[in-house]
Amino acid sequence: AQALAKLKDAPLLQTLNLDLFRNEVGEDGAQALVALKHAPSLHALTLNLYGNAVGSNGARALAGLKDAPLLHTLTLNLSMNGVGDSGAQALAALKEAPALHTLNLDLFGNQVGDRGAQALAELKEAPALDTLTL
């Protein structure tokens, strides 16, 4: 994942789909992928991180994608990653993304309880969000 994070330096990259299904990305890899927020032209990002042991710390790191200035479409498949309530609470920070109008967040098999669900409900406050899939 560290090597893939270098895609942030592609000046004309507008759409990026990374399918990293069961690739042992882990927390460190998730933290590295957040560097994609610095891609100057990135508008749409899909990260399939199904079954990568990202955990709550990795989810917290991925919430940093909120700082991608032009990102308007984000799809995060975090199924089977041990995200839990604390990771879901961190992901609620995506509501602060200024241009984000479409968010697809797959948290299947992450033991997200009431606290995490309540935090995710705060995504309704996102200023530009018009499509939300949980």
UniProtKB/TrEMBL annotation:
Keyword Repeat assigned: yes
GO BP, one annotated term: nucleocytoplasmic transport
Keywords in alphabetical order: GTPase activation, Leucine-rich repeat, Repeat
GO cellular component, one term: perinuclear region of cytoplasm
Ion transport in keyword set: no
MF annotations from Gene Ontology: GTPase activator activity; small GTPase binding
Entry superkingdom: Eukaryota
UniProt-listed Pfam families: LRR_6
Descriptive protein name: Uncharacterized protein
